[in-house]
Specification:
By secondary structure, the protein is mainly alpha-helical. The chain is built from eleven helices and four strands; from the N terminus they run ββααααααββααααα. It is elongated, with a radius of gyration of 25 Å.
């Protein structure tokens, strides 16, 4: 394996960091395409994606400084270079992004739909990064790969994850083209990724818990994957019976569309489905104007003939 891509003197370029950066760039690029399929402005979704990346980085650094204040005082630069994206940092990032979307008036469910395929693509790049540095060890296998962190052959779990993530990305991108109800694609993505991650844990080295831990019958990744499956099923069942453009739930909120707009309400003037309705209305209005002009020209022609 190749954990370090370049190391010249004090210049150090880790392979995982490079692949993670490439994955973020690829995910943002793909979001420009998925935004149009989800009925969102491409520049607005791009800005939201950049804000999400910045929020994740800042929240992780702040938490790192808070919990290791003495180390930060003695070696601030060295501490800030330590990768430290934790569950708490992700939670703070989600809250910050939610507030950002609310302030911008963007429908959350539609944004989730548009971000599902790019998120899966980012997962593929991160899995390749883990494969390169050998940080996702699998169970010993006769036909496996030999990593830099183990002297035996093992299951290439990271390679499996990268290939499956690419397949999931293509599938989710295809689902977006079907114009399903807001939130359905995100729910399907959560279920699919959760099932894949849950299954891959059976090929990984088991997680070692403390003996007194009550939830030790599942690995942490399996617990997270199970939560993703449950959340995805809720979204699919909630939104699966609805078609795009129909969202009967009217929630009070802001005067520019209310919370229904923020959640992805499709019948409002600003929702993604509302955008579709506006486009149809404008098209119908243009057709009506063209028909009126034709009738007027026919009337003038008949008057001249008389």
């Amino acid at each position: 394996m190749y954990p370090t891509l370049l190391h010249i003197g004090h210049l150090y370029l880790p392979t995982f960091g490079l692949l993670a950066a490439l994955g973020l760039a690829a995910a943002l690029w793909l979001s420009l395409r998925t935004a149009r399929l989800a009925g969102l402005p491409s520049d607005g979704l791009w800005d939201a994606g950049v804000f999400a990346v910045v929020a994740a980085f800042v929240s992780s650094r702040l938490l790192l400084v808070m919990f290791h204040l003495k180390s930060f005082v003695s070696a601030p630069i060295l501490l800030l270079m330590v990768p430290s994206l934790t569950a708490m940092g992700l939670g703070l990032s989600v809250v910050a992004v939610g507030v950002y979307l609310w302030r911008k008036g963007m429908p959350v469910l539609r944004v989730m739909d548009a971000w599902t395929a790019p998120g899966s693509l980012l997962w593929a790049f991160l899995a390749m990064g883990h494969l390169a540095e050998g940080s996702d060890p699998g169970l010993p296998s006769r036909f496996g790969l030999r990593t830099s962190m183990a002297g035996y052959r093992e299951q290439p779990v990271a390679l499996y994850a990268a290939v499956l993530a690419l397949l999931v990305t293509m599938w989710l991108y295809t689902l977006l083209k079907e114009r399903r109800a807001a939130g359905w694609v995100a729910g399907a993505g959560l279920v699919c990724v959760g099932v894949v991650q849950f299954g891959l844990t059976f090929l990984r080295m088991p997680y070692v818990y403390e003996p007194e831990f009550a939830l030790a019958w599942l690995d942490p990744v399996q617990w997270a994957a199970a939560g993703m499956v449950v959340a995805g099923c809720v979204l699919v069942l909630w939104r699966g019976g609805r078609t795009a453009g129909v969202f009967p739930l009217a929630l009070p909120g802001r005067e520019d569309g209310g919370w229904g707009k923020v959640l992805g309400r499709d019948d409002g003037p600003q929702g993604s489905g509302g955008t579709v309705h506006r486009e149809h209305s404008m098209h119908a209005h243009q057709v009506s104007e063209q028909q009126e002009r034709r009738d007027a020209m026919r009337g003038k022609t008949l008057e001249r003939e008389r």
